[in-house]
Amino acid sequence: MTRSLAITRLRLTDFRNYSRAELALDARPVALAGPNGAGKTNLLEAVSMLSPGRGLRRAKLDSLRRAENGETAPAWGVAATIARAGETHEITTGVAPEAPNRRIVKIDGTNAPASDLTALIPMVWLTPAQDRLFMGPPGDRRRFLDRLTLAAAPDHARNASIYEKAMRERQRLLDDNVFDPSWLGALEARMAESGAAMAAARARTLSRLAEQIAASPDTAFPTARLALDGALEEAALGGETHETIGERFAGRLAEARSRDAAAGRALSGPHRSDLRVTHREKDAPAAQCSTGEQKALLTGLILAQARALAADHGIGPIVLLDEAAAHLDPDRRAALIAELNDLGAQAWLTGVESRLFEAFTTDAQMFRVETGEITPG
Q1: Is the alpha carbon torsion for 32, 367, 52, 211 positive or negative?
Q2: Cβ contacts of residue 222 below 8 Å, gap of 6+?
């Protein structure tokens, strides 16, 4: 088993509860054990900031600065050395004191857009906040799917931003009773173009996940059947072209102006779509499954995404699993670790007790985390 992507050095400066921290690593999985509140999740969050977006907690950038005794650090930084397919890269990210809400990313010393991180260091994660994903509102599942989509389609975030901005501007006109056909038409064309691109990217992600799930029938995790509730995504899955989907959506938006004005929001579009997950063996919606089954389904989806990224990039991604092992029975815990090893991924796992990682035997780097202090062992 070859691990061709790994973080070999991680340095934190004034990040969350860490004033300074540094880890020297090899390519093996990283296991972090320690009591609740010690800073294990903060370490995973720091790693997640090496990808586009706001990290695994979706936190505001200025909230990541270390705060102690009523004082807040002026800035924060995360730096990492990445070993990738025989090459070494340096990534730094953080904020400056004069702009604590603007993220800076540098790759090998050169300023870069955060979207460039997607191809350099593909990454997936699972956190306790996602445990109620199937029971929660559709927006939670959209964000989950969009995060998976972003890992394979760096333009997805930009398309979503364009769509949401145009949608807000359109609604502002409708709220003000401004029914200028040229103005509205231009905004709706922008929504249609970006919305069709979003739907196509989501559909590709769903198809790739389904392929990976079908290719691993003997996994210890329950098999998920996936579907998308959303006219644009359903059309994309049905093979319709981007242009056809966009043109039809633009026409529907034009027809819905009065309705959307009365409702105070756009009632159709990719911002209303939902991810449907079914436990295949039980033929039951995920929301109706037990808590343990839901956790296992979610873990299986993350592993399928990791396999898809490995197939697309030719390297196993970085996998962040926060408290994932604690909620699995011993057999599934061992199966999880076996799948991570087979994948060749550098996985980062957290848990209160070191025994949760026994299935790694010697094939893991063990660290103890105690109130912002990290020690090997």
Answers
A1: negative
A2: 279, 280, 281, 282, 293, 296, 297, 300
Question: Can you tell me which residue has the tokens 């400056």?
Answer: 96
> For tokens 């990808």, what's the residue?
51
DSSP state at residue 214 = H
SS3 call for 86: coil
Distance CA 90, CA 198 (A): 31
For residue 331, which phi and psi values (nearest 5 degrees)?
A: -65, -45
User: Measured over all CA atoms, what is the biggest interatomic distance in the chain, rounded to whole angstroms?
Assistant: 68
Residues contacting 17, CB < 8 A, separation 6+: 39, 42, 66, 371, 372
101 phi/psi in degrees, rounded to 5:
-110, 10
| Average pLDDT per 10 consecutive residues for the chain, totaling 377 residues | 83 97 95 94 98 94 94 97 95 97 97 93 94 95 94 91 98 97 98 98 96 88 95 97 97 98 98 98 96 92 94 90 85 86 90 82 85 90
Alpha helices per DSSP H over the chain: 40-48, 117-120, 138-150, 156-175, 181-215, 231-237, 242-255, 257-263, 291-313, 330-343
In eight-state DSSP terms, residue 274 is E
State both tokens at 291: 């808590």
pTM tops 0.90, yes or no: yes
Separation CA 31–CA 377 (nearest Å):
10
Which two tokens mark 111?
């300023």
- Which residues have C-beta within 8 Å of that of residue 36, sequence separation ≥ 6? 352
